[in-house]
Beta-ribofuranosylaminobenzene 5'-phosphate synthase
Amino acid sequence: MPLQFRRLSPHKAVTIDAPARLHLGFLDPNASLGRAFGSLGLVIDAQGTRLEARLAEHEQIDGALTEAERERIALCLARLQAAYGPATLAIHVAHAPRAHTGLGSGTQLALAVGTAFVRLVGHPASSAELASLLGRGARSGIGILGFESGGLLLDGGPTGDLRQSAPPLLARQPFPDDWRVLLVSDHSREGLHGAEERRALASLAPFPQRLAAHLCHLVLMRILPGAAERDFAPFADGLTEMQQTIGEYFASAQGGVFASPNVERVLRAVAAERAAGIGQTSWGPTGFAIVASARAAASALATAREAARAMPHIECTIVAGRNSGATIRSAEARAQRIDAA
């Protein structure tokens, strides 16, 4: 969806709030029917990225950033300037999730920078166009689609030519308001990324077509209908089975069904005492347990913290789903949301 904005005056600021997402699994990592990946994902209402940008005389990048993130923003700006014309920005990152933990921080940061840039220079551009320019969405479109609309999302996998389009949106369900997500984070680890991720993917055996068919069946006939009808049991059971199946496939690359044995231990303890859909987002190490109510979430959090009592590197928090996309605010306009609907 094009971001149609007039140019702001110099020194007028634009603030972007980009939501985090959970990647809940691929449908077919091996393209057994000719099209690879296909992703299920959920946008959440915490662990997002917020940045402020303005036109300035000298480029400036500061805030809650690592040096690697600072360099990534500078590269994004260089690509945006090459594509849309010279413009100098000062960018302040107020907060962002820790990189490489499975929350989609790289895509959200890139899209936030790209959206701020085109907002300030008044150039129309879609999120998919920005993602392609900035090198995002090579396997999953969940981060791009979540930036636009939020919710529980299913994409159809990339075409193989990112210059043409991002992975298409196949289905979007609002995430039920009552359901909650327990996040279990391991601060001692990072998920696979970069060259290490590419090597890991290349090392995997072909994904059996029968398993791809099984995952598609789980998503289309249990997980999505469960969310649509707010029927928690088939949703949770289907999601746990999907995660177990895809986790076993990636186990040789990440050291187990879960990248963090401690995260797995905590989540198994949670699931042993209540109905929950458990798994790992992307390469982890962050894991999740989706439960049916705020009351169940409070109980799950207590169980998780007890299981992690001797693990100071494990953090357990409760979040909700988010059924809206990124938010843009500027000094010249009221807040507006990017929504697919």
User: Anything to note?
Assistant: The chain has two domains: 13-173+322-337, 180-320.
